[in-house]
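thought: fold this chain, then report.
action: predict
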Amino acid sequence: MKELINRRKMLGIIAVSGITLGATVACSQQPAAVNSGQARVEGTPRQFFPSNGPDPMPQQNDIEKYPKCPYCGMDRKMWNHSRHLVHYSDDLVDPTCSLHCAAISLSLNLDRTPKAIYAADFGADESIKPLINVDQATYLVGSKLKGTMTANSKMAFASAETAERMRVENGGTIGNFDFALTESFLGMAKDTMMIRKKRAMKREKMAAQKKE
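observation:
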């Protein structure tokens, strides 16, 4: 409970400070998801879209149920090794491709309490990495491992020993989820600018190819 309170306090401070302003503006350009047959809006723009309704066990078959990240549109199967899933207390689910996008979800939902947050176990042998509760995860931050939606890699491990072995091989710093989340927020502005630049270059390349 103490960790949950501290986490909510940290999210509030970061959101008020405006670190996630760029991400919020980007999301606000998308239409809000409205649950059919109901008058209420489910969450922030693009969140919980398309609407799948409450899910008490979202970690089961999560990629099949939630194939795309609602914030960046990336394929969660392709990026299964870095995917996260935020399960809120009202059983609505935010399935993301990365900690970067999970941080956006948490910053936009200060009035929603996470029931659980899951991350892919990067150290698992399976081709589709299984999800683990972040409270039991060890994160490797700032290593040479390629990051998802960030230049500052943040990978979760079920085994602290595996995380340490990867640190020795790839550098970085070992920490818990709150440490990794804080680093994600602190790098949000830089990462958002990097992502926008890459996507602009991709659009220009696609436009040039159409003209050929």
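thought: worth noting. Residues 2-50+66-196 form one domain.
final: tokens above.
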